[in-house]
Design brief:
118 residues; mainly beta; nine-stranded antiparallel β-sheet; globular
Length: 118
Amino acid sequence: MTDFQTFAHLASIDLGEPAPKPTSLEGNQVEAAKTLWSSPDGKLEVGVWECTPGRFTASRDTNSETCHIVSGRVSLHGPDGRSQEVSAGEMLVLPKGWRGEWTIHEKTRKLYIIHEEA
């Protein structure tokens, strides 16, 4: 039988102890995340992530990511020089193959959905 799952309010989910962000470029960032659900085939993951202010690199070489910003404000910087600010209540999509940087302006929490491509 297939059933649905529900989760507590995203702003209050305990993500555990934050750790240094490995791809941080400035700001001595720390991050924490908690996976809420994974598909049985491992191709879809839903979770919550939080990071402190600063700047880091990111790449979506093997997957795409959809994010809903729960709290905070970020700027995304693409390889073509385009920059876009995204804040609480907004959603963004990083397609497979995207590479760029995130600037976290204030502590930010997001709901993420990662889809591993075949």
